Amino acid sequence: MFDFLRSQPSSPSPEQIARYCRWLGWAGLILQSLLGVMPLVVVIARLVVTPQWRSLRSSFGLWVALVGLAILLFSIYWCFRYIRMAARLEDPDLRPAKSAVKRNLKLGLLSNLALVTLGVLLALWRVTALTLKMLTLPQGATVVSPGQAAAIPGGLITPSSMIAI
Q1: Is residue 123 predicted with pLDDT exceeding 70?
Q2: Where are the domains of the chain?
Q3: Residue 23 to residue 115: CA distance in whole angstroms
Q4: Is residue 17's pLDDT more than 50?
Q5: Of 9, 27, 45, 88, whose CA is between 20 and 30 Å from 35?
């Protein structure tokens, strides 16, 4: 599919671009849909199960998670648009302008880059918070509570803390 060692013309044909867009569109659509179910379930479960839902409305982490899910949904939709754009590229009568194709590809790449950046920043923020908790305890006083599903006042790290990362 991607052979970088073979010399090819400088600009690919519309049929090649359509083939790449269709393949990458389906791959992105399937992978993001499958992997996007997990954070969606976690956020919905957190909103439904937590009895203190009023305190969650002002939670910074919840709002960042919702923004990330919104970007994810947009990215899934944009992968579907890649598939539709590939079908239009193959038909010479329906073929969009070169600038429109470039704009669509650029917007899709930027949304996926924003999603990855947000995910990495969230993971770094969570790891930093856990590391700072560990560093505030005296040496030898680390508390790990593997039997607890949620954070308890005496517990430092729970399985849910590690899953959240």
Answers
A1: yes
A2: 14-121
A3: 21
A4: yes
A5: 88
pLDDT, position 19 = 92
Helix and strand totals (H; E) in the chain: 5, 0
pLDDT value of position 7: 66
Crossing angle of the two packed helices 60-90 and 98-136, in degrees rounded to 10: 160
Handedness of CA 90, 96, 100, 104 (dihedral sign): negative
Task: Write b or e for each residue in 20-38: b if 16 or more Cβ atoms lie within 10 A of its Cβ, otherwise e.
Answer: bbbebbeebbeebeeebee
Which residues have C-beta within 8 Å of that of residue 111, sequence separation ≥ 6? 71, 74, 75, 78
| CA–CA separation, 53 and 42 (whole Å) | 14
67: which residues sit within 8 A by CB, 6+ positions away?
Answer: 118
Beta bridge partners of 157: 144
For the stretch 131-139, contacts whose Cβ atoms lie closer than 8 Å and that sit 24 or more positions apart, written own/partner, are: 133/157
Convert the pLDDT of each residue in 29-88 to its tens digit. 999 888 888 878 877 777 777 666 555 556 677 777 777 788 888 888 989 999 999 999
Instruction: Give which of 155, 6, 126, 137 is closest to 64, Cα–Cα.
Output: 126
